[in-house]
Design brief:
204 residues, mainly alpha, 6 helices, 66% helix, elongated
Length: 204
């Protein structure tokens, strides 16, 4: 019952966030890549509502998938797109810090971590299938495939962060979502504007 309720909340969260995003536009920051966890998450007890819980339970596996992708790329040639590999190294550190903060908030809210999205094809999530396809890809295609996967992940996280700030209940988590959204905007800008990067399709 709990898993079903959370899946429903995630769907509502994503739909609400998308509507907010379309209404407000996809603002992008030109500032340098920044850590999303500049402010420490409090260790005092927090109260998480259903949207807060769903947001954390979705963002954790999304971040873990992105980190798994970056770790896998450590074994592939980097000379084709060194600027991408530099960005991915920064993303790995930022995502690992976010995972610590998200799990800290779950603990502070006395909520167990549940992998309710295992095997799901969620937007922006790097799946085992995606990783297998990337492993099988020729070296010449690795950079473009990896950039597309990471971009989808970053863009969907922006959508989810907007939804959390709109419908979430925990001030601590809403603040963290705001920091993550700001970081993702900077990361998207860096990804799309790196030297030699293909131009993103309109609305992409």
């Amino acid at each position: 019952m709990r898993a079903g309720r959370l899946v429903g909340v995630v769907a509502t969260l994503a739909a609400t966030a998308l509507a907010v995003g379309l209404a407000q536009g996809w603002g992008r920051s030109d500032q340098a890549l920044t850590a999303s966890s500049a402010t420490a998450v409090p260790t005092a007890p927090v109260v998480l509502n259903g949207t807060d819980d769903a947001f954390i339970q979705l963002l954790i596996p999304m971040n873990e998938g992105a980190v798994a992708l970056i770790d896998q790329l450590d074994t592939r040639p980097t000379d084709a797109d060194p600027s991408l590999w530099t960005l991915l190294g920064e993303l790995r550190k930022a995502h690992q810090a976010e995972l610590r903060d998200l799990r800290g908030l779950l603990a502070a809210g006395n909520v167990p971590e549940l992998n309710i999205h295992a095997g799901h094809q969620m937007p922006g999530m790097v799946t085992d299938v995606s990783l297998a396809e990337l492993r099988a890809a020729p070296d010449a295609e690795v950079s473009s495939r990896a950039a597309a996967l990471i971009r989808a992940h970053l863009a969907q996280t922006v959508v989810l962060c907007r939804g959390e700030q709109t419908a979430g209940g925990s001030p601590e988590l809403k603040a963290l979502a705001g920091r993550i959204q700001q970081a993702r905007a900077a990361e998207l800008s860096t990804l799309d504007n790196r030297f030699g990067a293909p131009t993103a399709a309109p609305g992409g």
